[in-house]
Every structure is written in C-alpha cells, then in structure tokens.
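Run log, item B.
One chain of 160 residues. Sequence copied directly from the ordering sheet:
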Amino acid sequence: MEHAQFEMLVHQYSDTIYRVAYQALKNRADAEDVVQTVLLKLFERSASFESPQHIRNWLLHVTVNECRKVLRTPWRKRIFPLEEGRDEPVFDNSAQSELFAAVMALPRNYRMAVYLFYYEELSTEEIAKALSAKPSTVRTWLMRAREKLKLELTTPLKEV
C-alpha cells in the first residue's frame, strides 16, 4: 500500500475504529491498542480493496476480531476495574450522558449491534459479517437492545 493512500485511510477511519473498539472493550487504552493493531494490519496488507465500502467493512471486521482477542486474554480476567478510574466521555447534557450509560450497560453483542447500526449506519447484513453472526441474530440483538433501552430510559428514577 502506498504511503499517501495509507495516511488518507488512517485519517478517514481511525476514529471509527477507535469508537468500535471502545464500545467493545469499555477501556480507552485497550481501544487505542486495537486501533494501532488494525492500522498495522492495514499497512501490511498486500491485497487491494475492491471499493471504499470493502475497505470499511474489512476494517470493521478486523477491529471486532482484535477486540475479541483482547477480551479472551488471561490478563483481562485478572484485572479489577476501578470505578473511579473509568474514562467515560463528558457530554453537554444529561440526556446524552444517560443514553451513553444505558448503551454501555447493554451486553457486548447488543452494544456492538446498536453502535454499528445507529452510529456507523451499517445494514444488518454488514453487521452480521463484521460480528460473524447471522443477519437474523443481529436483528434479534437489535430488537432486544431496543427493548432494554426503552425500559431503562423510560422507567422513572426510584427515589431513595
């Protein structure tokens, strides 16, 4: 791959790769590591891509696979996350913050499906390829995620 083309792809897709990795891993440092790994694989790739959509789908698929590798590592099972050390983004209003917290509380498959569908605007077929699942399974994840989010976001807060 030519250096100029690689730089263009880095500028175009690095944020997307980071956001997908952060959704999967819930950790800034791990997401940054995944971005570097994916971009290194892109740089070392010798085969050419058919279209810009092919590049995007390939990058998302590789990102999801790298996130799975990180989640499978034995080290990940031994660490204990400190709640006060969580690195969540800061939002301008409470509704955005509440929505983000509700989405991040979803199970990983639901969270990834919601993110790829609503934020990256992928079809259920494209999400299925990226997550190595059937399109009907992705549609089920989306339906269940919507139900959970609706329940979570419409339930009035319990008074203490």
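Observations after the first pass:
- The chain has a mean pLDDT of 84.
- Residues 3-25 form the longest helix (23 residues).
Flagged for discussion on Thursday.
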